[in-house]
Each structure stands twice: as structure tokens, then as C-alpha cells.
Amino acid sequence: MQRWHILGVGAIGGLFASLLQEAGTRCTLLLRDSDPDLAEGTTCITLRRGERLHSYQFEASASADASPISHLLVCTKAQDIIPAIAGVAHRLAPDAVVLLLANGLGYQQQVRARWPQLDCFSGSTTEGVFREGRRAICHAGRGSTLVGQPGRETAPGWFDAWLALPIQCGWSRDIDTVLWRKLAINCAINPLTALHGCPNGELAQRAELAALVGELCAEIRAIGIAAGQEQAVSDLQTQVMAVISATANNRSSMLQDVLAGRETEIDYLTGHLLAQGREHGIEAPRNAALLAAVKALRAGTRPA
Length: 304
Ligand code: PAF
Prior knowledge:
Number of domains: 2
Oligomer: single chain
Low-confidence stretches: none
Bound molecules: pantoate
Shape: globular
Mean pLDDT: 94
């Protein structure tokens, strides 16, 4: 029977572990060696949807354990993906399935280069979920999840378990476009909200920020087109404004990272975008200024 190991048990990792288990797929949570739940060997996640609370019991396993992993779901922050997989690499079956479900681009190639034997897939989700406690998450907004593998038309057999999830989840024949579109939207929203310490909606409400979003979108679009991603960046500004409006009260993941004193994903978002721009001889001064400003934010310092 298929068993998924979950690496990165934050909001997204906790949500997918719970949904998979609810749909009958067994999951094991991979925890840091210092995690107190490891003493019990099990851990519980509480998932809130509106007024209803659901509890899910999971097997817990330390990364350093020896039992083999056949299916690995990676939901860490982009910058943690390589070290996190390295920590469990000794457990991965030679042809293990690895599904990377994180923001950003660039780490996919790094994983494939370092572990070419793995069967690597990528995913992108717009499910609205946030943490309410150490193992408590709130599924606040319904979205959709797309999974794919560059160049692969049809879904592999293991994906049947994902089609059974009680959310909108599908196979994408063009996951690169999906990931690029998400990158473009994240680049236009996340760094600005992190710098201004504002919920997403303020990017539309404050005229000077709305103008900046427009300028960022124009640069991102130019790079996308040069990189052969016309489809991903068509109507970019309209798409970005729609996401801002749909998530008006949300704090972006990057703002949450800054407020919590965590490292941000900026290198795999704006950093990756600018690297693509350099490759195609396209300058993006507005995005470059945001990259520098986000990097200059001292960890734990509240943004202005
Ligand atoms: O990273 C995020 O926070 C989200 O993907 C989104 C919707 C782009 C901004 O809140």
C-alpha cells in the first residue's frame, strides 16, 4: 500500500497529510530529531474548517531513522528543500517518487541534478491554509492544486490517491507554465507586502503601491516572454489584481516569514526571476530594488 512521508509539517504539509489520510492513504510525518512527539512515535494534527474541528493521528518518524521511503511529499520553504531532502536521502528508495510542493522556482533543477535517480514531480496549490498552533491548522479558503512532471502527459498510477482528495486537485500536462505563473504572481505580491508590512489587499487600496504592482508586472512579463513563458504571463496584471482581491485580508507567506524572523523565499522568487532576466539580457530595476530591500530586512525586524 502507498505510504507518503511528509517533509515540512507546516500549514501546507499538515493540510495535505490530513487530506491524504482522510482519503485512505497512510502518511508518516518526518520530524526534526529534537521534536518531542518522536518519543511517542505518533503525533496529532488538528484541522479547522469553519466551526468544525477534525483530528488526525499520524505515525512520526525522525529524519535520521532508517525505514525506507517510497513516496515523499516535500512542503518545506523553498530554501530548506535541498538540506531537508539531504537529511532523508539515505532512506529514499532508488526510484522514490518525490513531489515538491513549494513556492518558487530553481530548486527543482537543483534536486534533479543532485538526486537524478529520483522520480521528481512538482505541484502548485492555492489552498488557503494557515497555522493556528504547533500542530493546529485552519483550512480557511478553498483553492486548487495542480501536479505534473515536465514533459509528462499522463498522470502516474500513484496520482489516483491524490484524485481522491476532497479538494480540487488535478494533473497538469504543462506544470512549467503553472509554476511560472505562480512565481510571477508571488513576485508581484509577496516582496511588497513583506516590505510594507501590509495585508495583500493594501496593494490595491494604496495608489502608490498599486502603481508599483503595475510596474513590477510589466518587468515580470517582459522576462517571462523572453524566457518563453508567454502563456504564464499573459494578462499578468489582471491575474495579480484578482489574487490580491481574493486574498485581501491575508498576510502573504513572505510577510509571515519576516514577522516570524524566518528567512524568506526571496532567492527562489525574485532572485530566480532576475537570474532569468540576466540570462536574456533584460533588466528589471523595480524587482531588483525589492530583492535588495527584502534581503536587507533584518530577521525579526518588523517591516515599516
Ligand atoms: O505566497 C503567498 O502568500 C500566496 O501564494 C499569495 C496568494 C500569492 C500571496 O498571499
